[in-house]
Each structure stands twice: as C-alpha cells, then as structure tokens.
TrEMBL record:
Keyword list, A-Z: Membrane, Transmembrane, Transmembrane helix
Protein name listed in UniProt: Piezo TM1-24 domain-containing protein
CC annotations in GO: membrane
Biased composition (Basic and acidic residues): 343-355
TM helices/strands, residue ranges: 12-32, 38-59, 66-88, 128-149, 179-199, 205-222, 229-249, 295-312, 411-430, 436-456, 463-484
InterPro entries (alphabetical): Piezo, Piezo_TM1-24
Domain (Piezo TM1-24) ranges: 33-154, 168-553
Leader sequence residues: none
Organism lineage: Eukaryota, Metazoa, Spiralia, Lophotrochozoa, Mollusca
Domain of life assignment: Eukaryota
Length: 571
C-alpha cells in the first residue's frame, strides 16, 4: 500500500510538472517577444496537450523525446545569446564600436532580430531580462521536468507498455467520464462561439459557422456519429494554423509586407497586437490599445486548442482501451444472447444496477440532452470500460427482482428538464427583448411575432410549431450582424439610396463582440425550444407505437418501441 501511494504521488507530481508548469513557461517564452525561437516555443506549446502524460513507459518514449527537444531548443537559444554578444564584443574597435554593424532596422539587424538575437548595449535592464531570461527558463524547466519524471517513474519489472494507461483510464472512466464528456462538449461549443464573435473576420467565421452548425444540429436531435471525431480534428488543425499565423504576423517583416490597415489583413483578421519602433527595436509597443478584443482573441484561441486537443487525446485513449478489451466484450455479448434465447424471448429484462452502472446511466441521461455524438450502443452492449472486469453478463439474471426500480434523476438534471419544457416562454421573452435592445425593422418582426403568439390560448403549441422558422430567422440576424461586425468600416456602406441601413438592422458597432454575444444568448432560447419540440414530437411517435404494437409471427413476444427504449428516452 505504501508503494502504491508513493507511486500515485510520483505520478501526480510528474503530471502537474508536465501539464501545468512546462506549458506556462513555454507560454511566457512565446509571448514576451516575437522571433523564430518564440515561434518554436509556440509550436511546442501546442504539442504539449497532445503528448501522453509522463509514465514509466512514456517518459522513455515519445514524452521523453518531446522534453529532450524542448530543453535542447532552450539550451541552443541560451548559448546563441552568449556566443552572439561575445562575438560582437570581440569584433568591437574604436572606429567600429560594439554592434555598429547592426544599426536599428537595418537589413542585418532585422534578420538577426527575427531569428532571436539582438544587441543589448542600449537596452534597459527590464528588456534585457525579457529578451534573454525566457530561453534560460525554458531550458531549466524542461530539464527539471525530464529529470524528475525519469527518477520518480522507474520501469517496473514485467510491465507492458499499454498496461498502466489502460488501468488508469479504466478507473477514471467509471467515475468521471460522463461529466467530463458533458463539460468538454459544452466548453467546445461555447469556445467556438467565443472564438467566432470576439473578432469577426473570414478566419473566425469558420468557428462561428461551426458553432451555428453544431448548435442547430443539437437542437434537431441530430448527431455526426463518427464524423464528429473527424470534425474535431479539422477544427484542431485549423485552429493550430490560425494561432501560428497570428504569431507570425507580429513579426516586423510580415507587418511590412501586409500592413494591418490593408483590406486583406482586415478581411482575414490578421490582428497586429504589437509593433516595432525603429528608434528602440528592443522594446515592445502595442499597436492599438483601444481594441481590447484583439488582446483577448489569442487567449480564447489557445483555450479552444487545448480543449480540442484534450478531447481528441481522450478519444484516442478510449478507442485504444476498447480495442484492447474486445475479446472480453465479445464473450460478454455471447453469454447475454445465450441467456436471452434460453428465456425464449428477445426482450431485455431490466437488471439490478450497481454503483458504476448507475453512474453510466446518469452519464447517458446527460448525453441525451448534450451529446453531439450518439451513445455508443455497441460499447454498452459489448462491455464498455465502465463494465470491464465486473462480470456485466452475470448481473443480467438478477433483474427480475427489481423490475420496477430505476435510477432517479439528479436534482440539477431535473431542473434542466423543467427549463427545457418551459423554453417556449424564454423564446418569446427573448424575441421581445431582442427587438427592444436592437431597434430595427428586422427585429420588429420578432416583436410582432411574439405578441401575436402570446394572444393565442395554445401559444405553447404555436411557438413549438414555429420554432424552426424563428430559429433560422435569428440565425440570419446573427450572420448579418457578424458581417457588419468585421473591421470593414470603409468598405461596408452606412446609407444606400437615401435609406439608413442602421434603421433596417445593418448596423456597425465599435465593439461588435458584445452585441453578438447578447444575440447569441437570445438565439440559445430558440435552440432550446426547437430541441424540446423535436423531443416531444419523437415521444409522441413512440407512444403511438406502444399503443399499437406489431405482433411477430412464430410465437415470440412482441417487440415494441418501449422494449427497446433506453433510459435516456424515458426522461
């Protein structure tokens, strides 16, 4: 027990060092100055969440190789600073003093500065630390993390490469996988919305349209199936390229090629956060401090990247875990089918639930309201990591004793169900508030529609039937506001044929992200209403099927939709 406790403490220490300390140091090294070395730090920062956590196996494999590359880069950058300044000092003469060949903003000076080397004879002490210390910090931190993990995680005798990650992942899956999936998908959708509206542009429109697509798909009870994993990979690749392009655009060279005021830069969303002053190139100057959203945008993109990377890494680990237990799962399914044939019925008998199964069903209940991926029935039937090692097939025969007992909803899920059933009220209120906050002829349609719906006695039914049209009208208003929120003040007109476009609803705002965020919140009510309408319509179809079941030929028991209904469909 003492050895197991010490091993867990060692794994926790290594995990915190690798997942928390190292990324923070790499982030500092990437943002305090902008050159080729800091660009490489950004690349390693983006690779960090994709790497497996340090274990006795991975520290001697891909994770250890990653750490060696990081502290090797920090070492080379630190040595380059020393060699560069020693060379300048050795070449200095009375006629050509220290650094005279690297005058400010000359061709050679810009070249070496973009690489990561600068003359420091006139630089203040603070700037010297900002330019030199990050390389030393990255080298020391990566070296410490590597040595500590190597020493604390020795190779155990007879340990297989896949054993430790499989066991740890199986234990975590029984406890927190449902909540993690719910939080992960919710964060992904919210971060897509934030990344899209924080600085409207062509590049950010990918996040905005992805958010609208996923939210609308969710409201219609649709799913992408296995394509959702591919979709996340696409978002990860695009987000990575976006972050790297924004980092490169902070270089003086790229800002000279494409000025931040050019139409192409404003259209694509190439945001200049810092600029270079040739009178003091060693200092850092901000381009436009009045646009605070430009400083928040890279941070939101980085959080979105980490969310996508963690979800994709966990998805790959889950897939590996299921494949490793496929033989046991097949045996479990074979045993279950044999017992069903022995009872002479294809109907599944309710079974007694142990604690881990209750947690799994609660997770399924959450996913019924939140998931963009379908519940993996194959995994559930064949023995998911939640059921592995617990003899799931044996528990099926114990269900006759407690057929009427089922898992209860948690309080917060009950509250969420109540809000969903009353979502039409929120939608009507949102339509009126939207038209009041944003006066225009386009929003007047929402106000008029809400007032007309309120006048009917069966306003709930009418609101549900009209919810698809209300939703797509709101999405159209969002898209219009997104286009007019781009940094195209000169190109987008204010007046056309004597008509003020702002009166129609085509209005520009100094900080469009705030208006877009409010309108997205209103549209959320429309998504909830449409989802509840689709849910009730689906339940009514299932109820009709239960009322008039189809009898099968051959004496077997009738199979009704209710007999196949999962727990999540009975909410």
């Amino acid at each position: 027990m003492a050895t197991t406790g010490a091993s867990r403490v060692a794994q926790l220490v290594c995990y915190l060092l690798f997942r928390l300390l190292l990324p923070c140091v790499l982030l500092v090294g990437a943002v305090v100055r902008y050159n080729a070395v800091s660009f490489l730090y950004t690349v390693f920062l983006l690779l960090c969440p994709l790497m497996p956590a340090p274990t006795s196996v991975t520290i001697r494999g891909c994770t250890g190789l990653y750490l060696r590359f990081v502290f090797g880069l920090g070492l080379l950058a630190s040595l380059a600073h020393g060699v560069f300044h020693i060379t300048l000092k050795a070449m200095a003469t009375d006629s050509k003093p220290y650094g005279s060949m690297f005058t400010n903003c000359s061709t050679y000076e810009q070249l070496v500065r973009q690489i990561g080397l600068e003359r420091l004879d006139t630089a203040p002490t603070v700037d010297i630390f900002r330019l030199v210390i990050p390389d030393v910090a990255v080298f020391v931190t990566a070296l410490i993390v590597y040595i500590v993990c190597w020493k604390l995680l020795p190779v155990e005798a007879g340990q297989c490469q896949s054993e430790l990650p499989t066991v740890v992942r199986s234990q975590l899956k029984r406890k927190v996988i449902s909540v993690v999936e719910f939080i992960g998908e919710a964060m992904l959708v919210l971060l897509l919305a934030a990344s899209g509206i924080i600085a409207p542009s062509v590049l950010s429109s990918v996040y905005f349209l992805s958010f609208l697509f996923l939210a609308t798909l969710w409201s219609m009870y649709g799913n992408l199936g296995r394509k959702f994993a591919v979709f996340r990979v696409f978002l990860l690749v695009f987000n990575t390229c976006h972050i790297l392009v924004l980092h490169l655009y902070q270089f003086q060279f790229f800002q000279q090629v494409i000025s931040p005021t050019d139409f192409i830069a404003r259209l694509l969303g190439l945001i200049a956060v810092v600029k270079t002053d040739c009178s003091s190139p060693y200092q850092i100057f901000f381009y436009d401090t009045s646009k605070w959203q430009n400083f928040i945008n890279p941070g939101i993109l980085l959080i979105l990247f980490y969310t996508l990377a963690v979800e994709i890494r966990h998805h790959c680990e889950d897939k590996t875990l299921v494949l490793s237990h496929q033989p046991d799962a097949a045996r479990t399914q074979k045993t279950r089918r044999h017992r069903q044939r022995k009872r002479g019925s294809e109907r599944e008998v309710p079974r007694t639930l142990d604690e881990s199964q209750k947690e799994h069903l609660v997770g399924a209940e959450i996913r019924d309201y939140s998931s963009l991926e379908p519940i993996n029935d194959t995994m559930d039937r064949e023995g998911s990591p939640t059921m592995l090692g617990e003899e799931a097939g044996t528990k099926n025969s114990e269900g006759n004793q407690e057929q009427d007992e089922g898992p209860k909803r948690s309080a917060w899920v009950t509250f969420f169900v109540y809000v969903m059933r009353q979502s039409y009220v929120l939608s009507l209120i949102a339509m009126m508030v939207w038209s009041i906050l944003f006066h225009s002829w386009l929003t007047f349609v929402l106000l008029l529609s809400a007032c007309i719906i309120w006048m009917f006695s069966n306003s709930r039914r009418i609101c549900y039937v009209l919810s698809p049209f209300i939703l797509f009208y709101g999405i159209g208003l969002l898209c219009i506001q997104f286009v007019f929120g781009m940094d195209l003040q000169k190109e987008l007109p204010i007046e056309s044929y004597g008509i003020q476009l702002g009166d129609i609803g085509l209005r520009k705002y100094p900080h469009p992200c705030k208006e877009l965020a409010i309108q997205v919140a209103f549209t959320l009510c429309f998504w909830l209403t449409l989802r509840q309408y689709v849910r009730e319509k689906r339940d009514s179809v299932l109820a009709d099927g239960e009322k008039y079941p189809l009898e099968t030929v051959g004496g077997t028991a009738p199979t009704t939709p209710n007999s196949r209904k999962s727990f999540t469909e009975m909410i």
